[in-house]
User: Which sequence fits this backbone?
């Protein structure tokens, strides 16, 4: 994708701390991109690139001149539609630089903090990375651990265990 070169240039010209600040300023774009109104403005040929950048700067409250210039460059090259992907790339690069990765533990009921900490510890040890997990509840029975930046998904579901147990019993008969 063409947006990678902009993210790469940004990473090469700034510090880790500044990258984290830029990431926090641009993070809302991922959710905004799901909005039909946002996409209409960003893709409209009737709205000038300068107005699109102005819209983004005001909407996100961006004060960093480097970010404003980046948005202007991306707009000039008709890549504004790819901005959410740039935010995801930036998150992955920051995680790679710092060695800190964020993920989620999904379960039907909230797990004890000690269990989440144990999962974090074992996963961090196994991968040689620092993993920080946030807990979220879901309607599915079982537990799923998901670390997007590392493309890791580990899941154990009650239905799967029951199905395997029944299959083993049938094989044993």
Assistant:
């Amino acid at each position: 994708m063409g947006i990678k070169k902009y993210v790469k240039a940004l990473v090469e010209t700034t510090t880790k701390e500044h990258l984290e600040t830029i990431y926090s300023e641009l993070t809302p774009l991922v959710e905004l991109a799901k909005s039909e109104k946002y996409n209409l403005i960003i893709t409209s040929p009737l709205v000038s690139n300068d107005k699109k950048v102005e819209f983004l700067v005001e909407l996100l409250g961006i004060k960093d001149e480097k970010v404003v210039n980046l948005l202007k460059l991306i707009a000039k090259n008709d890549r504004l539609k790819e901005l959410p992907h740039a935010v995801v790339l930036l998150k992955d690069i920051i995680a790679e630089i710092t060695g800190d990765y964020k993920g989620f533990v999904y379960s039907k009921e909230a797990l004890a903090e000690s269990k989440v900490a144990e999962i974090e510890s074992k996963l961090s040890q196994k991968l040689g990375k620092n993993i920080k997990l946030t807990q979220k509840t879901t309607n599915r029975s079982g537990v799923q651990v998901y670390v997007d930046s590392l493309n890791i998904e580990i899941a154990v579901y009650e239905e799967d265990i029951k199905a395997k147990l029944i299959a083993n019993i049938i094989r044993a008969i």
